[in-house]
Amino acid sequence: MKSLNIGIIGFGTVGCGVFETLKSFNEITVKKIAVKNINKKRNIENFDNSLLTDNPYEIVNNPDIDVIVEVAGGINPIFDVLKTAINNGKHIVTANKELLAKKGSELFSLAKEKNTVILYEAAVAGGIPIIMPIKTILCANKITKIAAILNGTTNYILTKMAEQELSYETALKQAQELGYAETDPTGDVEGFDASYKISILSTISFNKRIDINKIYREGITKITPQDIKSAKELGYKIKLIAMGRVLDDGKIDVRVHPMLVAKKHLLAKVNNATNSIMLSGYPVGDLVFTGAGAGAEPTSSSVVGDLLVLASELEITNSPLPQSICTHNETAEQIDIGDTYNDYYISITTSNNPGTIGIIGTICGKNNINISTIMQKGINKDNTAEIVVLTETSKESDVQNALKELIQSESIKNINNLLRVMN
Description:
This protein is an alpha/beta fold. It has helices spanning 13-22, 56-60, 78-87, 97-113, 122-125, 131-135, 152-163, 168-177, 186-189, 192-206, 225-233, 296-314, 356-366, 396-408, and strands spanning 4-9, 28-34, 52-53, 67-70, 91-94, 118-119, 142-149, 216-217, 236-246, 252-262, 274-282, 285-292, 341-351, 371-379, 384-391, 394-395, 412-421.
């Protein structure tokens, strides 16, 4: 195996995890580490502070460094830093899903031109091997569908809301105390993190570039304990699902939003901070990849794995891992959420008047929506009623039109939530 000199950009939880893991591999030498604050205390035994710099360009312009490991995250200044590295002929190993989702096409095109590779196993699901399997052993398959839990923070919150009957706010606070959620959890709870990851997965699975700006995204902040309870009574769990699928006409449907998942479904059994990815393809059929999707150890497993593969390749060739070269020249035609078809869960607060359920049925029927289940949850002290409706498969735009009509009715006090149901 070729000896590699590497530079690390970013030395937080993941960067430190990578550094510690690399102590077991003598063939890889860390030459320099770029950090924001050189004086920050590092919880690493016998750490040599001379390795640190606050200038990442010192690393990417160093001719003695072969590979850049980027675990800093974000777009600026990382995008320009990595472009400089690639122009200098350096290979990249990154865990930066946002960068790849937003700027990946530019970076991969440049890497192809400069005969370097970008490896990113750690960018999608932490320690779960998924990128390289899709690019190698599964390349004989036509993958047509992805359904995944790609964010451990939201899965932990939803698990605790279901198991301990916690409010969203209480479950989030617990996740923050345990280190699963950031002080500002927006990236996780509003679905941004999962949207970056499903963008990457869909691009390599469907062999077409996915526009991150065209992915429908909805987080979990509107999920209430009553939604969790109602879903349970109906035989479901609520999960934040990242989905990508190829439709019969070749268009692609990519989105992230909460879904009711039947309790018997494999994804319904994935709890706490665990991630899981289901792929459907021909001829392999259905596959499931499940494991730790974040954290220092699982993520460093993928980062160091990419480094070792690269070291093995560079021992025998100057053009390593041709399967990692971007070949996506076509941009996917992505459909709007309004053109999708789903089953729906609708939570409604109504006045306790005769004929209210009939009004709901009439408006749904007028908008081409068949109701499969309707459930009333008793009478509130203010003489209102909580009604839950499950629909058969309907077009999203029809459902949205029905909701607009419903809220205009005097009998309808509020549309509490609209969730889609996984088929």
